[in-house]
Design goal:
This protein is an all-beta fold and 190 residues long. The protein is 0% helix and 23% strand. It contains no helices and 13 strands. The protein has strands at 21-24, 27-30, 32-33, 39-40, 90-93, 96-99, 101-102, 108-109, 155-160, 163-168, 170-172, 177-178, 187-189. The strands form 6 sheets. It has a 3-stranded antiparallel β-sheet, with no helix packed on it. A two-stranded antiparallel sheet has the order 1-2. The radius of gyration is 30 Å and the shape is rod-shaped. It starts with 20 loop residues before the first strand and ends with a strand.
Amino acid sequence: LGNSCVLNEDCLAHGIAPTATACCNLKCEHKKVDYAGTGYCPHDCRGCPGWIPGCNPGTCGLGYNWPRHIGNTCVYHTDCLGHGPGTTDVACCQGTCQYKIPDYLGVGYCPHECRGCPAHLCGLGTCGTPWPRKIGNTCKLHTDCEGYGPGSCDTACCQEGSVMRCQRKWRTLIGVGWCKAECPGICQSC
């Protein structure tokens, strides 16, 4: 190793094996193994496919792996280890490999794309909170809340401090249901 060379045959232990020696830049060196298991001179070896941004020649052994792991950069879903159509398979989400999460219907999406309720009721990135919403969960509309209805003790989407949350209604003395903060006069919990 380190001897001058012109051809691979000039180096001891040269050969086709991925870790054999080769003549690299006129010097005998051990080949490095690329992402696909093929041996290359260190300056030519790529740690991942060439279409990955930043995966240039000379990147073997620099932390690149193929397929990409959770948290690694990616361009396509197929770049990621464990990619697939399943609800919790891995996908390329905003340039990194991430686990998909199920939406309110059980279909897997990247976290930033996933909706926790129908599109007209909530935005992207809202998965993780059940729908319809349980008491104490944030909401936008009364219909977001599980158990919503016209009854005096049904649930409603009510102001709680600076946020809207699903709450059980409070009753007036004549039995009309209100959000606690909006209740006129004397109200009692159901």
